[in-house]
Amino acid sequence: MMxxxxxxxxxxxxxxxxxxxxxxxxxxxxxxxxxxxxxxxVWLLMKSMxxxxxxxxxxxxxxxxxxxxxxxxxxxxPKTG
Length: 81
Known about the structure:
Elements: H1 4-18, H2 28-55, H3 63-74
């Protein structure tokens, strides 16, 4: 059983739906082109990222050689001359 307010609300929605222009809400060809360009750009970025990630060397160096390398890099070289 519908009340008077719900019936009144539905009649307002029906009149809004009749005046609703469906041509104004579709993205059309331009929307498809923009979406396709963004999709292509994301695909190219992912391809480039995978290429760069394959170049990364993930092997860890032993602790002993790392400490020795930083100590020699921190001490200044003696000047000759």
